[in-house]
Design brief:
Number of strands of chain A: 12
Order of helices and strands of chain A: EHHEHHEHEHEHEHEEHEEHEHHHEH
Number of helices of chain A: 14
CATH architecture of the largest domain in chain A: 3-Layer(aba) Sandwich
CATH class of the largest domain in chain A: Alpha Beta
Oligomer: homodimer
Chain lengths: ~400, ~400
């Protein structure tokens, strides 16, 4: 098996699994209980949160643990005034309080739409159109959501530049006595593994991170929340996570997340070099392709187009050779929806239909990369012969 | 160690852990991906949901998987008309659309309060006051939430009787042309392990279940949703769980939940007999106590009061002997709040301050039960001697 869909899911690493294991069986106590072994669990849980937070230059108390990126993204949007959401709905939006990048994941697009959000354009290279952003920020704007790394192209957005623009607007607002909040949220689900993330350096107020994309367990994520952002819980109850996310803590999940963050940090530079080398090697050995994500992207993302060939057919043919690749984000793929990301960067329908996403990861080896290039070459050649009759 | 707080947390059983393990490491694929190994995961996930659903007499498509009982409880309340929630807040409630039992867990109490909910009284034996229920149901009532088993006393509520009352009211409403919904929700988190639950027999429209209380993993629960109940998602995104709960599926968690449900069902009768025997044995060997939950409760719940002795001090003294018990629900205990449940059944403050909750479970043995009675007798005697100078 050659698995090249690490942006969709990663296996739990051996070290992560070993770290989690005792918290399922022996160290199972409820962190809220009063006796010593439970207090030890509460301590371990906080220590794990501190390690996750440390990975993005934050403190444990800045994090709200969630069941994944989708919940964290939705939680981030509770910073918006609920009355405004109603108004946006009722008025079929006048001026939007939310801006989001048009290439965002569905969990941002859907929640932004609920709030009457407006989309910011991207350039053909996948980067945010900063002029469009500037044009669309009004005195009503409260929240701007831009993923650090796009989940289909791997495009790394210049968040620090966005933060600079926001800072200038905030100064201007202050001068003019406009005291509406203006927060920057970023979904960094795809980024934590290969970018050295620091919330202060990025200039974000809210940051979504996710264990399942970095060799941690599924069903665990977190939202970093700066002191400027005031959120409301999506669900209420026992008051865990500072009242922002009630429910008994998923201790094994969070311990695993912490180990996954620590491992990511430890191997960050090595992995980047490795993936950059593999990407180059792969493309050198691949024939007759068009590379979609040429620049500004994570080294483990390779998005390709094969002229005149249907990518879904390629996925199927490669599957027969036990090579597993994607045509787009897994959740969009399962619904048979044309990629909004590839549309946004201006690809023609035929290009979109022919696009494959390969995301390299820890299950791969150099031999696999070379083998994949060879297999794709063969499959594409056969398919072209078949199509051309 | 003698652990007697199984209502707060249970360890993941060996069989559950073994069932989950491959889905962390080898079978890690995203269920939404297009290739065969991922489709196998999607199939396993659905099969696990079917097994969970089967455990309560339902179908996989009736379940929404959540991150636990709190989220499921909150999701249940989305059946309410959002406009009415706003109106309830604005008017400081006129007639409430929500009724809930006064002894409910915080995750119900808090969300019910947000909707201007009204509490139904319990009798001194902990059972619902059906006359109070009847009196409080109006033509405005849309949702009634009553836990099948109380988490502090283990009291089993007569849900089928409640369902009968609701059915009569619905018939009456129909005759009078009142077409407002009237749904019955029950949090069965504590019950799935020792009661043979069937949604049709209980007559519920919405049912919360939870893996973490039945030797399954933390961070996984589910809400059963009948066809009559129309819910709205707490968080939006990729559209998983029929659009009611977006986010990549927690496959290992759900597989573990399914195994925990299957194991619970398999050992239901044996465990009930075992706990009933242990409860009897324990009480026969215990001295100078008052039993709070005399009747109508799960056999593994023992709530005791020792006159003139502070329960928190007992928890501490027992902890020194490595016997772990609770004073109330773990999440309430950590906040130092007096139990609203014990208050509701009419206990005096001194009784509440002296109340211990012991919940028996699979980590126990008959020897442990006998040892615990002996240790509590000694500790209580010493403490009485100390208090009386």
């Amino acid at each position: 098996m050659i698995y090249l869909d690490h942006a969709a899911a990663t296996p739990v690493s051996e070290r992560v699994f070993r770290a989690m294991k005792p918290y399922f069986t022996d160290e199972f106590f409820n962190p809220s209980a009063a006796y010593l072994p439970a207090k030890k669990i509460a301590h371990d849980y906080e220590a794990a949160k501190a390690e996750i937070a440390h990975g993005i230059g934050a403190k444990a108390s800045d994090l709200v643990i969630t069941a994944g990126a989708t919940e964290a993204n939705n939680l981030a949007f509770t910073c918006l005034d609920a009355d405004k959401k109603e108004a946006a709905r009722a008025n079929n939006k006048t001026e939007s309080s939310v801006l989001y990048l048009t290439t965002e994941h569905d969990s941002i697009r859907r929640v932004a739409e609920l709030h009457g959000g407006e989309a910011i354009r991207v350039l053909p290279n996948g980067l945010i159109d900063l002029n469009d952003l500037k044009k669309k920020i009004t005195d009503e704007t409260e929240l701007i959501s831009i993923a650090l790394v796009n989940n289909e192209l791997g495009t790394i957005q210049p968040l620090a530049e966005v933060a600079t623009i926001i800072r200038e607007i905030k100064i201007d607002r202050m001068k003019r006595g406009v005291n509406r909040q203006l927060l920057l949220h970023s979904d960094a689900s795809q980024a934590l593994n290969l970018l050295d993330i620091n919330v202060a350096r990025l200039g974000v107020d809210l940051l979504t991170i996710n264990a399942a994309k970095i060799y941690g367990p599924k069903g665990v994520g977190a939202l970093y929340v700066s002191h400027d952002a005031k959120l409301k819980p999506l669900a209420v109850g026992g008051g865990q996570e500072n009242g922002l996310r009630s429910g008994t803590e998923n201790v094994p999940g969070v311990v695993g997340f912490a180990k996954a963050v620590a491992e990511s940090k430890e191997h960050l530079n090595g992995n980047r070099k490795k993936y950059a080398k593999w990407r180059k090697l792969f493309l050198e050995n691949l024939k007759d392709y068009e590379l979609i994500n040429k620049k500004h992207c994570l080294d483990n993302f390779i998005v390709l187009c094969f002229d005149g060939i249907d990518a879904e057919r390629l996925v199927f043919l490669l599957e027969e050779k036990e090579v597993y690749v994607a045509t787009g984000a897994a959740c969009a793929a399962s619904k048979g929806v044309r990629s909004h990301v590839l549309t946004a960067i201006g690809l023609a329908d035929s290009q979109i239909a022919g696009s494959l996403r390969l995301t390299l990861g820890e299950t791969n080896s150099e031999e696999q990369i070379l083998a994949t290039a060879k297999i794709i070459n063969e499959v594409v050649q056969e398919e072209r012969a078949r199509v051309n009759g």
